[in-house]
Amino acid sequence: MVANFKEVIMFLEISDPMAYHVAKYIRLSKEDESEGPSQSVTNQNSLLDEFVKQHRLSVYDTYIDDGYSGTTFDRPAFQRMIADIEAKKVNMVITKDLSRLGRDYIMTGHYMERYFPEKRVRYISLLDGIDTGVESTANDITPFRAIMNDMYAKDISKKIKSVKRDKQRKGQFIGGKPMYGYKMHPTEKNKIVIDEEVAPIVRRIFAMALDGVSCRKIAATLNEEGVPTPATYCGWNMGRKGPYAGLWSSERISEMLQNETYIGNMVQGRMVKISYKSKKCLKQPRENWVVVEGTHEPLIDAETFRKVRLLVESRKHTRSRTYDFLLKGLIFCHECGYPLATLNRKNAAGEERLFFVCRTYQRFTKAGVCTCHSIKEQTVTEAVLAKVREVCQAYLNADTLLPMAEKAVEAARAADRTDTEIQALQGKIDAMTTNLDRMYMDKLSGILNEDDFQRIYLKVKSDRAKLEDQLRELEKKKGSPAKAEDEAKTLVQRFLESACASRELLISLIERIELSEDKQLYIKFRFKQLNSAQFEAIS
């Protein structure tokens, strides 16, 4: 390894070391453990330091991501390095090898082929002999190195997933935090035991449910008594901050009352990652869950659990009914800022009417969070439309808008034509890039000799450069977008012509509507020319 590194040092030459401000980037993750100690942070740093010293380079900073996978570029140190590049503090990035930069071949290629060159940043991968500041054969095969690194990460991910699945089938706990009421075994790995500190709370929740107390009432009682939620107790990230952060909810209670973990069964696999490159997870149907019976001491006896589950399921109702109305997605609570819920109620005549109510108040009534805000949907809609017409009429001069509208339409049509040409050119450029990649492969496999490769490569690269110049000229012709004022007037005209009945135009004009407890409406328009003060919604 050392001999190889010495050769790299001799090969890579820095003619003007004083012109560079170096970022040493180091990354280590669990996927690298199988490669031995050579990938350690200390080892990487020593190699980078030796190279820097050999070439008398000035180091701006060292960026270390310890414990982060190469399949994602959302790493704190890497993003800090990118910020320093954007601030023009760094113009050279050095890594031990290409896999340290990343194992996602698409994103790795993006940074090497596009981002770094555009930012005038020279990238050097020591053990691969890659140096974007010079022409070399090592640079030519870089895309294939990136693909191999990506394939390695994918293979490792499959192996890890298989191991985890096997542990799940054996009833071993592999999650981060056990279900509320349990904790990790102090000595045995992948085993959970009862957490006696909060176990009484779990038993009390089940006892209340067995007595017929609703999930909402149970949540309200716990909130009134100041009982910490599972997230608060475990120190979990609270996620989105809001007025009901740190409060029990009926949804949380319902989930607990139906979780078989409390009768001694290990329930896992309810969420699955989309892919090895993404942190996002998808809920799995119950039939795909991994349930192993009798893996740990139960908190609740099976008969109590069965009765409680039946009670919960008997009280289930369709909460997710979808109601269509003009202001859907635009109406919010003025006090807490959260969307208003929509309820369907019957009046004295037996007719169904939609009502708005504060969602926060609805979920946490007894906790004293926010207030009701109950009001007819029809009343709000009529008041909003009346005010919008008033504001628009006061601002609009229809006679002067027609020429502006005509110009806007013509400009849009011209932009469409330009966009079509841009798409066609981009397609040709992408096709040439694909051909260049294929040529690299043909060269590596021996189909193309060096002379033929260089001749064809230079020709295709030259043709692509000409198309890229044409693309830049077309993009310049598109011009700047219309002024906000002009756009606002055009939209207002269309809105009035449709008698304010178009939801599309409402969304174009209005960003959000807020309803206060004293029945005041606040409209926030997307255009500052139209913004107005609150007004009374109920006549």
Describe the structure.
With 539 residues, the protein is an alpha/beta fold. The protein folds into three domains: 2-155, Rossmann fold; 182-314, Putative Large Serine Recombinase, Chain B, Domain 2 (Hect, E3 ligase catalytic domain fold, Alpha-Beta Complex), CATH 3.90.1750.20; 322-539, no CATH class. It is 47% helix and 14% strand. The protein contains 18 helices and 18 strands. It has helices spanning 2-11, 41-54, 76-86, 98-101, 105-118, 137-140, 142-169, 199-210, 215-224, 230-234, 250-257, 302-314, 359-363, 377-395, 398-445, 450-477, 484-497, 503-509, and strands spanning 21-28, 58-66, 92-95, 122-125, 130-131, 182-184, 192-194, 266-268, 271-273, 281-283, 290-292, 331-333, 340-346, 352-358, 375-376, 510-515, 520-525, 535-536. It has a five-stranded mixed β-sheet with strand order 2-1-3-4-5, sandwiched between helices. A hairpin with a 7-residue loop joins strand 9 (271-273) and strand 10 (281-283). Helix 8 (199-210) crosses helix 12. The protein is extended, with a radius of gyration of 32 Å. The N and C termini lie far apart (83 Å).
Which descriptors apply to this entry?
18 helices; Hect, E3 ligase catalytic domain fold; 539 residues; 18 strands; extended; 3 domains; Rossmann fold; 4-stranded mixed β-sheet; 5-stranded mixed β-sheet; alpha/beta
